[in-house]
């Protein structure tokens, strides 16, 4: 670990992007199983572009989707973080801050995504002062929806939408929306 650390949890370090992340990040984003709920796996050019956008958002907003590594081995697991979406067309619930995650298959089933996401929720509500954080995915993405529920988010039954970056008839265009308000998070006092 050499770069800036944003947050730490029991098992994880949540830190700034570094050039050395670009190779393992492309490995992650080109895995067809990891990307099965997205339009397609990403080329090297597109995964590099995503890293650059995250770095820009970090500078602009003070947060972004950020690398996750284990404390014990320093292995790059993927990203978890907060982001102001910047798609070609607006989302129906803009302006918003979303929370998102994408981890290597080898890191699944260990609670890492939820552990990192809870730390980012605390950062978003307590440090940034956000009133609400949202998350969205396609209905079939049960693992991601379980993370949303596990960290205290609730589905907005009236919030289903078609992703603005995709044609309406694209198989992964329909999305479900989850929300968490700061007042609810404070009441729940998650650890
Ligand atoms: C979404 C994704 C991050 C979820 O990963 P995950 O490992 O299922 O979620 P968590 O890290 O929160 O781990 C929870 C699981 O670990 C288990 N677990 C094992 N040890 C644990 C521990 N010490 N602490 C907590 N949970 C633990 C939990 O029981 C749970 O298992 P279950 O889902 O079978 O009940 C992962 O599937 C992924 O990266 N998918 C591809 C990218 C993607 O779709 N991203 C979302 C786009 S919206």
TrEMBL record:
Gene3D superfamilies: 3.40.630.30. Residues 12-183 form the N-acetyltransferase domain. It holds the Pfam family Acetyltransf_3. PROSITE patterns: GNAT (PS51186). One of its GO terms (molecular function) is acyltransferase activity, transferring groups other than amino-acyl groups. InterPro entries: Acyl_CoA_acyltransferase (IPR016181), GNAT_dom (IPR000182), N-acetyltransferase (IPR051531). This is GNAT family N-acetyltransferase. It comes from Roseibium aggregatum. The lineage of its organism: Bacteria, Pseudomonadati, Pseudomonadota, Alphaproteobacteria, Hyphomicrobiales.
């Amino acid at each position: 670990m050499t770069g800036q650390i944003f947050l730490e949890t029991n098992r994880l370090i949540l830190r700034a992007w570094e050039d050395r992340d670009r190779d393992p990040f492309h490995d992650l984003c080109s895995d067809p199983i990891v990307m099965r709920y997205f339009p397609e796996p990403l080329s090297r050019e597109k995964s590099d572009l995503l890293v650059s956008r995250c770095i820009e958002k970090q500078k602009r907003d003070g947060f972004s989707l950020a690398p996750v590594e284990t404390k014990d081995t320093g292995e790059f697991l993927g990203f978890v973080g907060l982001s102001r979406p910047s798609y070609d067309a607006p989302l129906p619930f803009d302006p918003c801050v979303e929370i998102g995650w994408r981890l290597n298959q080898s890191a699944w089933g260990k609670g890492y995504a939820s552990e990192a996401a809870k730390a980012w929720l605390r950062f978003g509500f307590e440090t940034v002062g956000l009133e609400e954080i949202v998350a969205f995915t396609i209905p079939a993405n049960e693992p991601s929806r379980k993370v949303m529920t596990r960290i205290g988010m609730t589905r907005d039954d009236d919030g289903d939408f078609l992703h603005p970056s995709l044609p309406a008839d694209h198989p992964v265009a329909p999305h479900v929306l989850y929300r968490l308000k700061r007042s609810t998070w404070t009441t729940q006092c998650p650890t």
